[in-house]
Amino acid sequence: MSPALSTIILLVISNIFMTFAWYGHLRLSASGVSASWPLYAVILFSWGVALLEYCCQVPANRIGYEGNGGPYSLIQLKVMQEVITLVVFVVFSIMAFEGFELRWNHIAAFALLVGAVYLVFMK
Questions:
Q1: Residue 22 belongs to what domain range?
Q2: Phi-psi bin for 38: left (phi > 0), alpha (psi -120 to 50), beta?
Q3: Where are the bilayer-spanning segments (predicted)?
Q4: Which residues pair with 72 in a beta bridge?
Q5: pTM of the entire predicted model
Q6: Which residues contact 59 (CB under 8 A, 6 or more apart)?
């Protein structure tokens, strides 16, 4: 598999874990799974999930970074990661939270981020 594709796949996987670490506990609490957990337990749970995120994020950046022979500059890696984060977050929110509504301003903000990716990849 090419370094470019490996980087993107690892970034997607890492962002799935990151989104669950940051927001999944809210869904778990709402469903009653972790509603009675003390805050420190929720933090430790989220930290454990975030460790899995780092297990994908760090290799993605090492493989993808042009300084290590990869195809992407630092800024390209960062902007790509932000767009992937937004896509994963929106999909997660639609699936996990009743009443989550994607509005025109959210779509406009997403379009601006895609524009940022385009600009970052211009030579």
A1: 3-121
A2: beta
A3: 7-25, 37-56, 77-97, 103-121
A4: 65
A5: 0.86
A6: 10
Nearest to 2 by CA among 80, 84, 64: 64
Which of the four pLDDT bands, split at 50, 70 and 90, describes residue 51? very high
What distance in Å separates the CA atoms of residue 35 and residue 9, rounded to the nearest whole number?
33
Residue 21 has what DSSP assignment? Answer: I
What's the domain count of the chain? 1
Q: Compute φ and ψ for 34, nearest 5 degrees.
A: -120, 15
Please give the DSSP secondary-structure letter assigned to residue 65. Answer: B
Alpha helices in 23-122 (DSSP H): 25-30, 39-64, 74-96, 104-121
The contacts of residue 86 (CB under 8 Å, 6+ apart) are 110, 113
- Of the pLDDT bands very low, low, confident and very high (cuts 50, 70, 90), residue 67 is very high
Of the candidates 3, 103, 1, 106, the one whose C-alpha atom is nearest the C-alpha of residue 114 is: 106
Q: What whole-number distance in Å separates Cα of residue 39 and Cα of residue 98?
A: 24
